[in-house]
DUF676 domain-containing protein (Russula ochroleuca), 405 residues
Amino acid sequence: MSSTPQQAPSNSLGSSQPTQQTPLDVILIIFIHGFKGDDTTFGDFPSRLQHILSETVQGAVIEPVLFPSYDTKGDLNKAVERFADWLTTLTVQKEVAHSLGGGTSRAKIVLCGHSMGGLLAADSLDAFINTRPDINAPLWPNIIACLAFDTPYLGLNPNLFKNSATKAADYVQNVHKTASGLWGAFSQPQKLATPVAKPAGLLPAPAPASSPGRWGSWGTAAYAVGGALVAGAVAGTAYYHRADIETGYGALTEHMQYVGALWDKDALAMRVHCLVEGETKHGVIFRTFYTVIPSGPPANLPPRTFCILPEPSSDAIQRFVPAPNTLAENEVRAHVTMFEPTKNDGYYQLGLEAAAVIRQAIANGRSADHSTTVESAVDNQMKETDAGIGWQTDAGSGQGSDLLL
């Protein structure tokens, strides 16, 4: 992904010709990875968004920026502090670099967090809103949108544990069946009997040969080779599926360790409430795109999601946008392959929908800037008018006094 700013050919949304009345916008799209993520989490998605927006938003420099990899352990609040400091410095640097003047709110910020990166974005936004020196002061850095990608704002879907445990158990069971079947073929060459299931990880001792056939002469060696093959099959199968097993158990467990607040329903609900309030009161658009595996054959399971969704009557439900993926095996795979076009057939649609939200945020920001400019001009004009009236009144009073004298 290139971080070189690209300037569009004109200065207004939907306009083909530049106008001097509309100032140039600098849009910084900040990408924040989630748990165990890194600079490669988003793949080419930032560049794709940059391309779409550069082609559809006039008069703006679109610059995607990756928040550097950070340690996803410990207290989330400390990560929020580090991110807030980094974003503040970055904003000043970019405003100066684009000759906007540091701290002028001319650089507009879009926060994009994947998974727990969305929690970091939400808490940082809340911190910026609540630490302003004056409640009437404008928000700075000038955050215009907070987008999340499969962030468990209301917690992890309980079905994740059931589905992941079942998947891991299936692998173990298949490994055991394979091991038992292979060993049965070696230990009983003259019979076609169904092998008796043994506990996973245990192999039966070889029985002595019943007749001096070919097995009698080299049976011991065959048993030794067979045991090695079976042991290799068990270890190999577990190794090749380690990612699925670890994703099913390890990742979810470490998610719980990193952010215990995922299990605090009141805190989760309050975070979503603050995000909705941030949009209704401060104009910061909030959207979260959540992965969903649609219902379909052969199992015809109901739609499956990684995240818990708001109640249908909630004010937040309209801000949760489905991001279907029909290629993912399970909810966890849909979550971790969200930005891989070969594993997510909804990847390109996701880019279009995210770009549409950002365009709306830019348009809203420009409207707010225009209103502020008009209000400022009106205020200045009224002050000048008041000053003129005051001068005329004073002059008139003086003249009247002279006449009375």
Notes: The beta strands are 6-7, 25-32, 60-66, 107-114, 142-149, 285-293, 304-305, 320-324. Residues 347-404 form the longest helix (58 residues). The domain at 6-149+264-372 is CATH 3.40.50.1820 (Rossmann fold).
